[in-house]
Amino acid sequence: MIQASGLSKSYQNVHALQDVDLRVEEGTVTALLGHNGAGKTTLVNILSTLLPPTSGTAMVAGYDVVRQSRQVCNVIGLTGQFASVDESLSGFDNLVLIARLLGASRLEARRRADELLDMFGLTPAARRAARTYSGGMRRRLDIAVSLVGRPRVLFLDEPSTGLDPASRISLWETVEGLVADGTTVLLTTQYLEEAERLADQVTVLSKGKVVAAGTPKELKAHVGERRVHLTMSCRADAATMGASLRRAGFNAIESPDDCTVSVPAAEFTDFADIVRTAADTRAAVVGFSVSEPSLDDVYLALAR
Ligand SMILES: Nc1ncnc2c1ncn2[C@@H]1O[C@H](COP(=O)(O)OP(=O)(O)O)[C@@H](O)[C@H]1O
Ligand SMILES: [Mg+2]
Q: What number does the ligand 1 atom closest to the CA of 14 have?
């Protein structure tokens, strides 16, 4: 559904995107994962025809994003990084406005607006000005607006940034519902967790380049799974604990900065083995925590 090859975008001496290849199959979710400035928005904007590439080619639904931008526009929806709804209009009026702009009759436009408000749980707030909406509601309205034309491909640029946890989960469910109905989704995110939850494929961008691509599982295998951190009261104890865990078959690493030993824990059953080993070791554990890998860990692992 999306095929990009050798895409580059430069602004004078800034290389926002360099030689990016991307392939997205129909009906799947692909996440573009990267820190601020990695090039995510630039890539989304090129694919959604808002920005011409400096070089390279891209096709969406079989249409060239430069030469056939009109046809591309007819099959895509875009929810940008920043809210694009008219704050003074109600949710209903925002949706009707877009439907009318897309050529729907007054009746069709109202019907589509009602349908989308219902789908996004916004019916009770339908007649209120969008400026009175919470962040989560506004984000849902943003996405609803981008769905008015029933796009086959939906671009979501950092859809969950700034949302509270409950709104984020509800957004994830919305995306899953769209994909179940056959929509192809390309979303950008700074959260490994989000990519893992939603995406079939992940492309990691760093400084405008693709530094990794694969399934979330492949990426995680590369980065390492969640880790257990055991803190001792001195370095000597940390060394003892590290050696003991390694004897038990764990790939334990002593931290260079403090008296902590960290151990990958791929399966939950690893917890019991780690705790058992720690209890059998002559070194008092004063702290215990578990961490999930973050985007920083992905970059670190890739750098290694
Ligand atoms: N119009 C522009 N002029 C100059 N530099 C830009 C412009 N747009 C983006 N950039 C630069 O391109 C890089 C990628 O930006 P962007 O695609 O917005 O990253 P992301 O969305 O991943 O945060 C950044 O270094 C950014 O400063
Ligand atoms: Mg961006």
A: 5
Question: What are the tens digits of pLDDT across the range 190-218?
Answer: 988 899 889 999 999 999 999 999 998 88
* Last residue in a domain, options 221, 256, 279: 221
Cα atoms found within 13 Å of the Cα of residue 9, Cβ hemisphere only:
24
In this structure, the answer to whether residues 217 and 289 fall within a common structural domain is no
My answer on whether 125 and 185 are in the same domain is yes
Closest CA relative to residue 159, chosen from 102, 212, 112, 199: 199
Overall number of domains in the chain: 2
Please write the tens of the pLDDT for every residue from 7-45. 999 999 999 999 999 999 999 999 999 999 999 999 999
* Å from CA of 273 to ligand 1 middle: 46
Determine the structural domain holding residue 261 and report its residue range.
224-303
Residue carrying structure tokens 């509800």: 170
11 lines ligand 1 (CB under 6 A): yes
> Ligand 1 in contact with 80 (CB < 6 A)?
no
